[in-house]
Amino acid sequence: MNLSSVKALPFQDHLEICNADLSDANSIDKAIEGCDYVMHVADPVIMERDEKEIVELAVKGATAVMNSAIKHKIKAVIMTSGITTVINYEAKDKVLNKEDWPDISKLQPYYIKAKSLSERIAWEIYNVAEVRPRLVVIIPAYILGPTILKMPFFSGNAIMSALNGTLKDTLKLYYGRSDVGMYL
Residue 74, Cα to own-chain centre: how many angstroms? Predict the structure, then answer.
């Protein structure tokens, strides 16, 4: 993975890059130990894996991050979720709040299900912990901009299929966008 954009950020003397594996709670614990803040910014989006494996890995990773953050008395966990975790298509005229979640059985593709379930588990752990970090969840819409990933990923594939003419369905869509280009 090319981390040149991360290494170009200011305050390098306060930044340490560690390898952690979402399927290995010990590696996450070691990466978090000694930190003040944790950013859990991604879920697995490996298209070649099956739905069950991706969803379980996302939930396992969020669980490990939250449990380790509590254990190490982290000040705050910043988690990137997604707009799909707050969309409820059946409640078109209803003002949604933190109690509203989409129907998991209707979420497609599985990346959206993984995002929703991993955010839910983070809030569940947060809500039962006696001493806990602040939990901040960022809910961007469609994220656009340069990537450091060298493998296929959902939003990248969607953009490429629209650009190269392989998009199977043409829909009239209205969606918000988050452009990360200026930061890389």
Answer: 19
What's the rounded Cα separation, in Å, for the pair 121 and 76? 16
Rg value, the chain, Cα: 17
Domain boundaries in the chain? 4-141
Four-point Cα dihedral 113, 116, 119, 120, nearest 10: -100
For 21, residues 6+ apart whose C-beta sits below 8 A from its C-beta are: 27, 28
Q: What is the per-residue pLDDT across 10-41, written as a single tens digit (0 to 9) for each?
A: 777 877 777 788 889 999 999 999 999 998 98
pLDDT(98) > 80: no
**Average pLDDT value for residue range 114-139:** 93
Q: In whole angstroms, how far apart are CA 128 and each of 66, 98, 121, 132, 143?
A: 11, 16, 11, 9, 31
How far is Cα 63 from Cα 72, in angstroms, rounded to an integer?
14
For residue 38, give the amino acid letter. Answer: V
CATH code given to domain 4-141? 3.40.50.720
Q: What is the pLDDT of residue 12?
A: 79
Helix (H, G, I), strand (E, B) or coil at 134: strand
Q: How far apart are CA 3 and CA 17, in angstroms?
A: 9
Report which residue type is found at 180.
Answer: V
Two tokens, residue 132: 């806990």
Comparing C-alpha atoms, which of 68, 78, 85, 66 is closest to residue 137? 78
